[in-house]
Design goal:
With about 190 residues, this protein is α+β, with helices and mostly antiparallel strands. Helices cover about 35% and strands about 25% of the residues. Strands 1-2-3-4 form a four-stranded mixed β-sheet, covered by helices on one side. The longest helix is centred in the last third of the chain and has 32 residues.
């Protein structure tokens, strides 16, 4: 369509075309002004070094007690990673987190022929408490429960691996739930 075709039709056709072009330009300028930023970004840092995240809010330091079981160790490792963003445990913690995690396998589906379970649910239960180190005040004491489904194949190694993967998933989800709960508890006065 050439510019001379704009004026050959009804007069409102040219106005609609110019209005559409103007609307497209306005939308483009509006969208160009939008920014996507992390919700808890520290505004005092410049953009070149802004690797901050929500975990910086928990950076004052939370020391997690040593673990007794493999699933508890997985949960502990995930929590330390979430607290520090992969920087490791805090050198000068202000809080101490007590943690007691257990994994309970529950068969869900039973094969009628062999009478063996073919699928299960790994229930990971975590009891935890947040204690302020300076005055030994209990800030938070909770129990959180998550579950992870898994298959139970007939091969023994595959069955063990499937259960371990379910424990790992449960530990990761439990750590994320505890992390969110602690972030809320420390954010509220």
């Amino acid at each position: 369509m050439s510019s001379s075709d704009l004026h050959t039709g009804p007069p409102w056709t040219a106005w609609r075309q110019w209005l559409a072009i103007l609307l497209a330009a306005l939308c483009t300028m509006t969208l160009a002004a939008c920014q996507v930023r992390p919700l808890y970004l520290d505004q005092t840092r410049d953009s070149q070094t802004s690797d901050t995240s929500v975990s910086q809010g928990l950076a004052p330091g939370i020391a997690v007690d040593p673990a007794d079981t493999r699933v508890e160790q997985e949960t502990r490792n995930n929590l330390i990673f979430l607290f520090s963003g992969g920087q490791g445990a805090s050198k000068t913690p202000e809080y101490r987190l007590t943690l007691d995690v257990t994994a309970i396998p529950v068969p869900v589906l039973i094969d009628r022929v062999t009478d063996l379970p073919t699928a299960g649910q790994m229930i990971v239960v975590g009891n935890y408490g947040l204690i302020r180190i300076s005055d030994q005040t209990i800030i938070l004491s909770q129990t959180r429960r998550v579950s992870a489904a898994y298959d139970l194949p007939p091969q023994e190694f595959a069955k063990i691996r499937s259960e371990r993967d379910a424990e790992n998933r449960g530990a990761r989800e439990l750590a994320e739930a505890i992390y969110a709960e602690l972030a809320i508890a420390l954010a509220t006065p």
